[in-house]
Amino acid sequence: MSSLLPLINGSSHSLKALSIEAMGSLTDLSQFFKGMQKFPLLSKLSLIMPLGPALISDPSGLNRLLSHPLHDLDVRFKHGPNTAPPPFHEISHWYTQCVQGLSFDTVGTLQFGTSSMDLDVRRQLQHPFQIPFERVTSLTIADIRLSLEDISMLVSNGRLLRKLSLVVGALCLEVIDTLAALFPKLDELCLSFDTLRETSASYPCSAVSPSHNGSNIQLLM
Fold first, then answer.
1. Residue 31 burial (CB < 10 Å; 0-12/13-18/19+)?
2. In this structure, which of 8, 10, 101, 185 has its CB flanked by the most CB atoms within 10 Å?
3. Quick one: average pLDDT of 41-58?
4. Are 127 and 120 in contact (CB under 8 A)?
5. Are 73 and 110 in contact (CB under 8 A)?
């Protein structure tokens, strides 16, 4: 991929969006990322790749790329069907280096996913990735089945959210109640779920308040 650097760097002063998907790469991409110049206009970045130092042994270049004042950020760690993700204790230091010193305080649209990884690893990864959710207006958390506790912990400051997409294991009125309370300004909500629980008598049908009239709600099973 280093052969692409002249093309990318040649557009450094005009580049506004960059998407990198490295699912099939077995080559260390450290020099590729370290060879990238600064992109003054870059506002949209998408990274889809396996997680860990096997692909990027030196994450300093990736850290510099993530330091741009991004508005739209899509980070999804994916592994092939025959490739197991590394244990968290082997990548925790590497992951900390990836996000060290970054504030992400300009991010307005965020998509984050860690497919093919167990939930304990995902939770540990989400804490260092400290996106200031109070600035995010569009949030997608992909490939991660969230509980009510997870939702409250991860996005409790998202008062400005207009668009939200989540995966929940089971959909019940408690989930809708929580989302309605946390995100009063939602215009668009997409929930993917495996099962639908019966309505609990202790949760009357007051979850969707009048402020949600006209909102677009999409439920995917």
1. middle
2. 8
3. 90
4. no
5. yes
188-196 and 138-146 as β-strands: parallel, antiparallel, unpaired? unpaired
Note the pLDDT tens digit of each residue in 149-185.
767 666 656 667 889 888 776 677 777 777 777 777 8
Measured distance CA(154)–CA(110) in Å, rounded: 13
Residues linked to residue 188 through DSSP beta bridges, in sequence order = 163, 216
What string of DSSP letters covers the chain? Answer: -GGGHHHHHHTTTT--EEEEE-TT--S--HHHHHT----TT--EEEEEE--STTT-S-THHHHHHHTS--SEEEEEE---TT-PPPPHHHHHHHHHHHHTT---TT--EEEEEETTS-HHHHHHHHTTS---GGG-SEEEEEEEEEPHHHHHHHHTT-TT-SEEEEEEEEE-HHHHHHHHHH-TT-SEEEEEEEEEPPPPTTS-S--S-GGGTT-EEEEE-
Cα of 125 vs its chain's centroid, Å:
11
Please tell me the pTM assigned to this model. Answer: 0.78
Residue 83, both tokens: 């490739």
Cα 180 to Cα 207: distance, rounded to the nearest angstrom: 6
Task: List phi, psi (to 5°) of 154.
Answer: -80, -35
If one compares 31 and 183, the residue with the highest pLDDT of the two is 31
Question: Is 101 a residue whose pLDDT tops 70?
Answer: yes
